[in-house]
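Customer ticket, subject: "Can you confirm the structure for Palmitoyltransferase?"

Message body: Hello, I'm evaluating your service for our small team and ran a test protein. I'd like someone to confirm that this is what the system normally returns, since I don't have a reference to compare against.
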Amino acid sequence: VVCLVAYHIFFMLFVWSYWKTIFTLPMNPSKEFHLSYSDKESLEREPRGESQQEVLRRAAKDLPIYTRTMSGAIRYCDRCHLVKPDRCHHCSVCDKCILKMDHHCPWVNNCVGFSNYKFFLLFLAYSLLYCLFIAATDLQYFIKFWTNGLPDTQAKFHIMFLFFAAAMFSVSLSSLFGYHCWLVSKNKSTLEVFRAPIFRHRTDKNGFSLGFSKNLRQVFGDEKKYWLLPVFSSLGDGCSFPTCLVNQDPEQASTPGGLNSSSKNENHLFPAKPLRDSQSHLLTDTPAWSEATAKAEKGKVGMSNPALTMENET
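Agent reply: Thanks for trying us out. I re-ran your input and got the following:
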């Protein structure tokens, strides 16, 4: 009876997670990241160069974005006509920009991103538990098959196939699930592993990592009672993320609180631009920029940044 109840629980959670992963539409950037009609006209009218850079700088001036392209340009999508939020990428299969895109999964025929990443993790977890449960309960009959303890019927070949299928899927799912658990602990996406995010001053592969606990809460939320259920509980809006700039630009203003240069790599410092209210509570126990430092930072960005050039990304 206990095995039968556990079987149905695993199966229901597996189907529920799979359903949510498939049919949850990936979130697109909000309207504020889209260029206005006048900016689109200016961008199309001006030749590719400094004039277009100025249009993009003006459009991104008040947006909570900190990442750039490899050449230092504002991340812009010429297919969706928008300034890309941090961790947003254009999916060539879906033909649209996906917030916090991890990858496009052919097994679910959907993009895995901010809106369904938690569902995808739970789908992997419950799939793994389901396969392990089947393999464990079928093991005794599999042993009897090799010891000729089963009746000589066609059913014994079904038992052998079921055990091998469950065992092989368990191995593949365990490696994939373990990999994504590591991504969650480091607050990275699959795309960011292959190409580290580039901030205004330099590339920082751990730029979005806030520590294991906060990284976990970003995906699963603050309410632990919802962690194991396929209901959306991730923090934030998908457009802005807390970020720590561990390696600061040497020309940047001095760190707040009297921190000297030797302690820069030991403290997580945050950008001058304010985060959304939905994300700022993650940083309540970390020193933030003072208003004076923020103004100095804004003043130096225009002078120290390299010339921005348009560059398209996928």
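A couple of notes from the result: Residues 246-272, 286-313 have pLDDT under 50 and may be disordered. DSSP finds nine helices and eight strands in the chain. Feel free to reply with more questions.
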